[in-house]
Input
Amino acid sequence: MIFILWLLVWLFSIVHPFLNGIYLITFMEYEHNHISSMTLCKNINIMIKVEYISHLVLNLVLLIFVKKTWLALLLNAPIILYHIKLFVEKSYELDPTELYKEIKSKKRESIIKIVYYISLFGFYLYSFIKAVIDFESLP
Output
């Protein structure tokens, strides 16, 4: 049963690096004047909400078997706290008038989150494979 949980977590975690990759590509398009600041902010603000909701669902799934997934919850704690901080300060939404000043930091944030999410993805894959092997070795 636990391997189904890890499979769900693994599938949910696929979304996060791709979303941050899209953020990064969109920021680069803005820098090269291929997209307007209004369009960028509208699209990114929607995707940020999708990222937050999917990360919330992922962590709720992890809470189902907290005794076996405590390490995953601990590894997710920094990004959860960061998202909560941004949400409380309402600084998660991009403002078209302030975008030019924030673009470099937002690109850096996207790169860091891509690396972080890919490492979590690897941990989830390892946990899923370990759970399948443990399940198959049961008598």
Q: What stands out?
A: Residues 2-134 form one domain. Residues 99-136 form the longest helix (38 residues). The chain has a mean pLDDT of 90.
